[in-house]
Design brief:
Elements (H helix, E strand, L loop, with lengths): L1 H24 L2 H14 L4 H14 L2 H14 L4 H13 L3 H14 L3
Length: 112
């Protein structure tokens, strides 16, 4: 079983890295698919949730992006970037109060 877990983790990392390359290249659909594969193989992969949220936001799926940012924050409550990005997504949906709360939370975590 340990061997399978290591294999799944390596596969998740490979999918995540490929997703990062695809996102930078502008292929959001492929990036989302690879981040999803990474998450399927490692359901606690915080960065994969965060980056999939970014890819979804750039694709216009703001609600889906918020769901991914929510999960990333659930797994790592100190991930300032997730609060900041979720703030932007909430602002786009007209949730000014939620956007403001997330923004200030991000600033409190990382004052730089």
């Amino acid at each position: 079983m340990t061997l399978q877990k290591n294999h799944d983790f390596r596969y998740a990392i490979n999918c995540y890295n490929r997703g990062n390359i695809e996102l930078r290249a502008g292929d959001r659909t492929a990036a989302i698919q690879d981040y999803s594969r990474a998450i399927s193989n490692n359901p606690e992969f915080v960065a994969a949730y965060h980056n999939r949220g970014t890819a979804k936001a750039k694709s216009g799926d703001t609600k889906g992006a918020i769901q991914d940012y929510d999960r990333a924050i659930e797994l790592d409550p100190n991930l300032a970037a997730a609060y900041s990005n979720r703030s932007r997504a909430k602002f786009e949906l007209g949730d000014r109060q939620g956007a403001s709360a997330d923004y200030y939370h991000a600033v409190n975590i990382n004052q730089n």
